[in-house]
């Protein structure tokens, strides 16, 4: 779920950006336009047919498999779309494998809605954070057909958001915590900005240690320079907080609805289709600033 289409733009815009002094700029993408497909040795993306202002190119369903293994792990089957679920199964079957495990990065429907049907089709268990699932815990190691995935708790976008480290490929599957393009929404009140900033810091440490080089996100292209993208996300968040502080000082705090006051001042050039997401992020920021 993306909240800010101002950031990003065409590859030309991105590569022309940079330097110091201006607003935070994302690193250039090598996957534009993004259509999914094989990305790392172990990860293949099947792009769901649900593009939109909140989903960018669509939801990324990730098929993971240790080379030579007949057991695959699927991350986020995506929307309940029979054709999409069939395409995932095609990719798995073409690799000579079957789905042994499905995991969810979080419960937003564009990632999870197809999971019950996918479980019927595959007979494979579905694991996630939250009620009704076989809960995942931080630090859990999931080993499937020789493929190792480590659960990294990254709440903030939602309370149940988790990422999955894929050490074999020095990759991190981030769901909606870090996207391949633009920035994400902190879905207040379920999502919380303080938790989100802590999660970004956690991912920053993983990139700093060299454990994570590539981000395989829930929307948008794979990110070959994870450290640069996380740094952009951190800077963007602090810049946006500063803008919200300024908007409050500029009179938004005295308005009947400060959220609308901030929306008008800070998010004026954001498309109306993403105002609902922008309002959630503004509430998350007001909550964060009010608590300090
Ligand atoms: Zn989401």
Describe this structure in words.
- The strands form two sheets. A seven-stranded mixed beta sheet has the order 1-2-3-4-5-6-7.
- The protein has eight helices and twelve strands.
- Mean pLDDT is 90; it is low at 5-20.
- It starts with 10 loop residues before the first helix and ends with a helix.
- The protein has helices at residues 11-16, 82-94, 109-112, 115-122, 193-208, 226-249, 258-266, 275-290, and strands spanning 37-38, 43-47, 60-65, 71-75, 98-103, 126-128, 134-135, 141-144, 147-153, 162-166, 171-175, 214-217.
- Helix 5 (193-208) runs antiparallel to helix 6 and helix 6 packs across helix 7 (258-266).
- It has a single domain (11-290), classed as Ribonuclease Z/Hydroxyacylglutathione hydrolase-like (Metallo-beta-lactamase, Chain A), CATH 3.60.15.10.
- The chain has 292 residues and is of the alpha/beta class.
- The radius of gyration is 19 Å and the shape is globular.
- 47% of the residues are buried.
- The protein binds zinc ion.
- Residues 1, 106, 108, 157, 176 line the site of zinc ion (ZN).
- Zinc ion is lined by residues 1, 106, 108, 157, 176.
């Amino acid at each position: 779920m993306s909240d800010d289409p101002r950031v990003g733009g065409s590859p030309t815009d991105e590569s022309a950006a940079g330097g110091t002094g201006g607003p935070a700029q994302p690193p250039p993408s090598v996957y534009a336009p993004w259509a999914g497909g094989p990305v790392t040795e172990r990860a293949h993306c099947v792009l769901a047919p649900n593009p939109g202002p909140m989903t960018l190119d669509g939801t990324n369903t990730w098929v993971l498999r240790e080379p030579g293994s007949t057991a695959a792990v699927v991350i986020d089957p995506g929307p309940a779309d029979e054709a999409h679920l069939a395409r995932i199964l095609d990719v798995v079957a073409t690799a000579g494998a079957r789905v042994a495990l499905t995991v969810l990065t979080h419960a937003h429907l564009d990632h999870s809605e197809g999971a019950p049907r996918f479980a019927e089709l595959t007979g494979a268990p579905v694991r996630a954070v939250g009620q009704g699932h076989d809960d995942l815990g931080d630090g859990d190691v999931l080993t499937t057909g020789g493929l190792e995935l480590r659960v990294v708790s990254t709440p903030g976008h939602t309370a149940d958001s988790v990422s999955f480290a894929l050490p074999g490929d020095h990759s991190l599957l981030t769901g909606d915590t870090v996207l391949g393009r633009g920035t994400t929404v902190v879905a207040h009140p379920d999502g919380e900005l303080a938790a989100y900033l802590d999660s970004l810091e956690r991912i920053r440490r993983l990139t700093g240690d060299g454990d994570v080089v590539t981000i395989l996100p829930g929307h948008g292209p794979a990110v070959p320079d994870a450290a640069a993208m996380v740094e952009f996300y951190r800077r963007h968040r602090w810049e946006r907080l500063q803008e919200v502080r300024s908007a409050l000082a500029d009179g938004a705090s005295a308005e009947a609805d400060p959220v609308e006051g901030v929306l008008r001042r800070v998010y004026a050039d954001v498309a109306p289709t993403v105002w609902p997401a922008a309002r959630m992020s503004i509430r998350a920021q007001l909550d964060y600033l009010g608590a300090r």
